[in-house]
# Entry
Amino acid sequence: MNRKFILNLILLVTLNLLVKPFWVFGIDRTVQNVVGADSYGFYFALFNFSLICNMLLDLGITNYNNRHISQNGHELASSFEHILTLRLALGVLYVAVTIGAALLCNYTSQQISMLWLLSLNQFLLSFILYLRSNLAGLQLFKTDSIISVLDRFLLIAICSVLLWGNVTSSTFRIEWFVWAQTATYLLTAAVALCLVLWHSGMVKLKFDRRQWMHVLKQSYPFAILTLLMSTYNRIDSVMIERLLPNGACQAGIYAQSFRIYDAACMFGFLFSQLLLPMFSKMIKQRQSVADLVRLSTILMVVPVVALTVACVVYRIQIIDLLYNAHIQESAAIFAPLMVGFVGVSLTYIYGTLLTANGSLRLLNIVALCGMLFNVMANLVVIPRYGAFGAAVVSMLTQTLTSIVQIIIAFYTFDFAINKTKSLACLVYVVVIVIFATTMPMVVNSWVVGFVSIILIGGVLALLLRLVKARAIFELLHNKNIV
# Structure
């Protein structure tokens, strides 16, 4: 299973590194620079508002389905035909609640107009994730990896033409960006649907109330978890826009740093996509997950810590490279967000493990505490410290919730603490922080310094035997290991 994890992780990371960084830093960043902080902040706040009620689109069905199909692949057809109609009904409910909530918040007609389209995009994205959960549940990781980047690949093509193709006489507008997303999500959903139908066979839409209730009864703990986590992950920009006098502009400034942080979190999310079906299958078959947890943690911690430290040290240079305005304010926000990235990354391993185990009650308690802390702290901090305060609150929330999840996972699975590895990890963090903080005094070029920190992290991991290159090489070439 370790070999399978590494091989599919390499494929998934490679595909995403080829496509998504260009999307984030080539397209999304350019759109913000072209339309300005106010217009992009207008879109960004509405986008995050559409995510808050996103739970209604799914109600935990995707994670439940991923776990269920991983353990019961022969039930794909019967499960798919019932869940398909349920998701359509949930889509109608989601749009109604989202638009209703926006009206209660006194959103303008212009905001409501864009929110309609963003709600449709959220429905399509959620549907794509559900379709992918069927592919991942069947252990079709290569196919799932391709679908995971298809929408962004298509979006890059469309936006590149609109931004640089000189096909329009007017300046690029934020509305075009939203319409482009709609088109690509429709195409990706169609491709994913055809792939699932290929493996399940043709199905009929079934409106079975009893089956719906059965699915919802099984998935509602996942739904609560999704709602709570999406709230404390996304509500900060909404609160910035609502609580500050120049809220749209401040949300746009926050978005500049959040974009990089969100792109970095993609790395951890890729781990969770592979680990959830693997953990689920291993737990059902009563196999030990300790080795896979240890391997995934090391493979996560080594690059994440190096990247985080490098980004914090060279935060001003990175923001200045990517954006045209609000450099100092955005760089200040970037530092705490990236520290919180370490906590998010560990959550993608230990939270995923607890999800696969069905420990949803404990996860929901942790997420509820995280949400309450985040919202209450932001109500106090944002009016006084602005977007920077929201970034600090995000960092604290992600760090604390990840620590609690790790403790629960160790207790639940009775993991033994490897003192040697733990000490090596501590030494790794301390040494790389020392190297990184002295790097600007030794190297004049920040690019050379940034790359040097990453390389030092890799060498240090080998010297401390956190990563054993020979062991991984043998693992990849040993086809007898499943």
Q: What stands out?
A: The longest helix spans residues 360-413. The radius of gyration is 22 Å. The chain has 16 helices and no strands.
